[in-house]
Design goal:
mainly alpha; Arc Repressor Mutant; two-stranded antiparallel sheet; 6 helices
Length: about 130
Amino acid sequence: MAIENVYVSEKGKKQLTRLKTKTGIQQWNHLCRWAFCLSLQEKSVPPLEDINTDSSIDMNWQTFGGEYHDVYLALLKTRLNNDGIQIDEYNLKLYFKIHLHRGISYLTKKTSSVSDLFILKTQKGN
C-alpha cells in the first residue's frame, strides 16, 4: 500500500511558483516536502475537499520523498492513525493530497524568504 505519484493543482502550482521566487528553492519536491510536513504539524485534520490536480506538476513518490520516501509514508500513516482515519490506499492518497495542498497554502501565507522556512520548522502548533 503506497502512493505512486504526486500531483499538484493549478492553484498549488501558482503558489509554489511564488515560493520558488521568494525562497530561491528551485525544486518542486523540496517545497512540497516542507508543505507536507507543515500541514502534518498542524493539530487539526485538514478539511475534505475535492482538489483538481490539473497542473503540469507531477512527480513520482520517490522523487517527492527522495531517500526518505518511506519515512514520509510512515509519517502519513501515523497521522491517519492518530486522527482515527482508516489506513487504506484511498485514504493515503486523499489525505496526502489535502495535507500537501493545505501545506502549500500555509507556506505561501507564512513565507517571504528561505529563512522563514526555518522559523516555521521550530514553531509548534501553528
